[in-house]
Structure formats: structure tokens, C-alpha cells
């Protein structure tokens, strides 16, 4: 196993690492972890851009304690999964359908370790991938919770999308997008846009310092183009109307990275959706202070109660 270890970030009980091969021969790393006690179902964790399995160890342990088996994935192009471009610091997708297919394949291969019902828990970019997977019917979930989903990118203008698509058409999709960081450097807590929790922030930074392969810098032009294609597809009339499962959408009150204005637009097309805003939270709601996280977990527990039946006692 290649789980990265730092103090205070215990590996979840029974966690196993798995590898699969996606389109183009890209190796993709995933984790499964069993429920503690009789399983009530499984939670499919879909991390955000730059994130990785170890960052979700605390979340995984909390889900296990709730009686869920857990699945988590390092998307292609980040974490310890393989890259599609030579510079491993570039965040790159050719299309969001590639991680969708990786996810679909992994869930199929590991179905015997993931009892139903299946509940999605998707953060940021993972929210775009998971919604795309549901939109295209590549996966089947029984409920899904979105944390600060990337259904739009703050500050990304139509002209920038057109530029990205034009550059991709010239074969330049693998170059860094204009103005983004080209190297990883340890983030200063006081200026960070994602959390008010100093300890959780330091833990994430420590994991990357411990294993530099976890580091990711800015996205490529190709990623921007692919993200624009995926997020715009959600806004086509009726594009999501067939997704009739219970949905929770949680926006961060102090959001700086994704476009919160996209959340009610997407929610309006989902037949069974509830939208909440965690006032005072920055982007990474699940990595926030305990009080802010508790607000999300309360809403998550209410969501899962709708689809979970009590497991039979052994």
C-alpha cells in the first residue's frame, strides 16, 4: 500500500488501495474501506481538484462510524494517479467524461465491497464529475450530497472559455492556463481561500510536503475547456430532469473559488433537491471548523435517512 502517513491522520480501519487502468492507459488509484459494524450502505466520495484520498481519511472514518462502507478516488491527473501530460504539476483533463468513465469502471469492479444503497458525497470539481456521471447515466446512486460543487467557476468569463476552446483546437490544451500557478508551494494559512481550520489546513499541507507527488499546481487550458463543456451541459433545459434521487446542495457562505450563482440554477432542474448555505464557511466545507462541519453533517444525515434502512443485526 502507498497510503501517505502523517501524524494525526490515521488510516481508516480496513482501508484498501486498488488500481485500475483508464482510457489511454492512465493508472487510477482508489480506496475502499468497510463500515464499522453492519453496513447501512456505501458512500462514494468524489474529491475536488488538487485533492487526494489521504485528505479524506477523517471524513472516511466519520462515515465508517455512521455505518457506511466508503469509496474514494484519486482522479486521473492528481493524487497518486497517473498523468496525461509530462509535467505532473499540471491539472489536466481532455474531457470530464474520462474521470466519469474511471469512476464507473471502479464502482463496477469493486461492487462486491460496496453494499447498496450508494450515496454520493462530492466536493467542488468532484461535484461536476459526479453530476456528469449521473447526467450521462454512467453510474447509479440512491442519493447524493454536493459540497460547494463546481457547477461554474468564479470569475471565468465567456471570452476565456472561447479562448481555451480555440487553443485546444490548435493542439495546445496541455499548456498551463494563463495566470495560474505553475509550481506548488506550501500555502499560507492566513491567506488561504478554503478553510478557517488551522489544524486541518496544516494537515493537508503536511501530506503534500511528505509526498511531493501529491502536489498539483494550476489547471491547463484543456482542463478549462473541459470544465466549461461539462458545466454548461448542466444548464441545458431538462438536462438533469431524469435525476430523481434525493439531492443535497451545500454552498459555502464565504466562497471564493466556485460560482455560487450556479447552484440554484442547477438545483432548479433537479426534481428532489434541497439547497442550503453554510454561513461563514469557506470553500472546503468538510475541512472547515467543527461547528461549520456539523451543519453539513446534520443535513447529510437527514439526506441518508431517506434512503437507508436499518441493517439486520448479525
What's this model, at a glance?
Helix content is about 30%, strand content about 15%.
CATH architecture annotation name of the domain at 16-83 and 96-155 and 234-305: 3-Layer(aba) Sandwich
What fraction of the residues are assigned to beta strands by DSSP? 15-25%
Number of helices: 8
Shape: globular
The secondary structure category is alpha/beta
Share of helical residues: 25-40%
Order of helices and strands: EEEHEHEHEHHHEHEH
**Overall average pLDDT:** 96
The CATH class designation of the domain at 16-83 and 96-155 and 234-305 is Alpha Beta
Brief descriptors of the model:
alpha/beta, 30% helix, 314 residues, Rossmann fold, 8 helices
Topology:
Layout: E1 16-21, E2 27-33, E3 41-46, H1 57-65, E4 68-74, H2 97-109, E5 118-123, H3 125-135, E6 143-147, H4 158-169, H5 198-210, H6 221-233, E7 247-252, H7 262-267, E8 273-278, H8 290-305
Parallel strand pairs: 3-4, 3-5, 5-6, 6-7, 7-8
Antiparallel strand pairs: 1-2, 2-4
Helix pairs in contact: 2-3, 4-6
